[in-house]
Amino acid sequence: MSNKKILIVMTNVEKYATTNRATGLWLSELTHFYDKIHRAGYDVDFASPKGGYVPLDPHSLRFADETDWALYHDEDFRQKALATSLSVDTIDPSQYVAIYYTGGHGVMWDFPDNQALQKIAESIY
Known about the structure:
alpha/beta
């Protein structure tokens, strides 16, 4: 595999904008993709619009399977992906062969108008 990587982008939004309901990353949207590309030999970086902490949609844990729990219990994965994600403002798109946007309702608020995310995707494409 080359030294190129895949950029995985997650949300920083932890609550719906109009109600007091928790949201965030849908865990399996991250873990299943990561598991496949990691097994295929790709390196990844984890990013979010603000960087840092990535909240989990608590409802996603109700549907967690073995892959989800295995990665969630992996301290290195949890630290890099969920605790210290890179800010999209620090990303150099030339380092990546692909970009993957994870799901969860939080992305409805911090992905659509994010100019940095748009520029990264355009550059990688």
